[in-house]
Amino acid sequence: VKDNNLILIVYYGRSGSIFAHSLLDGHPEIISLPPVFMYYIRDINNYLPELETAEQAYDYFIKIYGKVVNCVESVSSQNEVTDLLESLNINLNSAFDESVFKRLFFKFYNEQTSSLSDKHKLLFLTMHYAYDATLLGYQNIETAKQKKVLYQLHNPIMSYINWFAKRFDGLSLFQMIRSPLDTLRSTVKYCIEANGFTSGQMATTLKQILFGGTKFDSPNIDHFAVKLEDIHLQPELTLRRIAKRLNIRWDETLLCSSFSGLLWNNVKGREHISGFCAKPIHLNLSDVIPDRDIQFLMPRLMRFYQVWNYEFPIFKSSNLPNEHLLLLEYLVYIPDPVLATKQYNQQYNQQYLFLRSENIQFYFHYSMRFNQALVEVL
Amino acid sequence: MIEKNIALFGFGSGLDLYLNMRTYERDEKIVVIFDNNASLYQGSPDFIVDFPINIELYQFERLFITSRHYINIYKQLLLLGVEEEKIEVFLPMIYTG
Fold first, then answer.
1. Which residue of B has its CA nearest to A359?
2. B62 - beta bridge partners?
3. Selected residue of A171, A209, A362 to mutate for chain B interface (largest B Cβ count, 10 A)
4. A334 φ/ψ angles, rounded to the nearest 5 degrees
5. In chain B, at which end, N or C, are there fewer CB atoms within 10 A of the end residue's CB?
6. Mean pLDDT, chain A, as a whole number?
7. Do residue A220 and residue B24 have CB atoms under 8 angstroms apart?
8. Dmax over Cα atoms in chain A, in whole Å?
9. CB–CB contact B89 A366 (8 Å)
């Protein structure tokens, strides 16, 4: 494994990518911003204007992420970044000094302009270096350059990964995975708890489960997966393996969840786990994925279980037609599945007919013959 | 290295991404790019671009759909007699489409 300078963390559905990020955050050889910066790469690809000068770059940064660096003008503003801070339960470091950050931002930006012509890469590195230097109290950019940058990309969108691969000599793509049906069930429940499960979320969730663990095949990218279950059951052993793969030394901070120097706990709720959970986290699937749906989904997910060495769920083998409707498809239109379980279970049991979207039809059809290599487990 | 002959379908942003992601030498040769608007192609002259109606003129082992309209194109290819085993959707089209 070559010495990679950039580490991207991505998920496979709801599989602990924020948790993994929180464990690597705080390692002395890693620079890591809180995971709310995941929008940066989307902005670059979609609509970020040309940022020709350090002033323009800083103005953009403060406009979107000002609250994260305690910018006075941004403290009361609300945008998707602040929403994400809340939903991820991330506390901001009140000791973070924006004036120091600003000074270091301009210093580091200007020190790199002669060597970096790509303005978006320049901003990406500068915001990481300045953030880390402000937190830890150093002034020299060379200190930052010795470290690896860790970025929560979150969604493994190939064009975004490719954006990084083209700009960084070596790239570690660290994908969190989890037993596929547990992931599906957990993602659906999470959506229901948050705002209700929409048809768009259903399509996205199914895409993630059926196609999301595909290996990114490029010699410039070291793509590997870590099982969430392994982190919970054997934290130190698994994190030692991760450290070795990322070519960073073992450090006790790897066993501690934090962001920006502050301890981090997952959001509270019955579907959320904070810290390591020594018990196996197998979920009772039946409230979202009853037996017949497992029968329908398993032929499409079998190789995920095999390649990632997961125990198969118990299910009867049968040939359900492609038209079989899943319970989660009925859950799309209701705000609270507990209240409506009886009614919708009845409709599901009778396979009450509705028109499945063309996209979903295609996912189920194509996933039966989709056989691209899957990412290998560490 | 023995090259595999492949075909692509769609010359929009999906094609750019496909070519962009070829950051290393793949053992494949693009024999043709199909598109329902083939006459509007203005990209690299290195590629042969043709209408799918002429698909029988080309020999390829696999065909990657590099268009966001992959569902309709998939159906169109089946109607044109392309074996389903040869058809693949370039994954970013599904995953981000």
1. B71
2. B6
3. A362
4. -120, 145
5. N
6. 88
7. yes
8. 68
9. yes
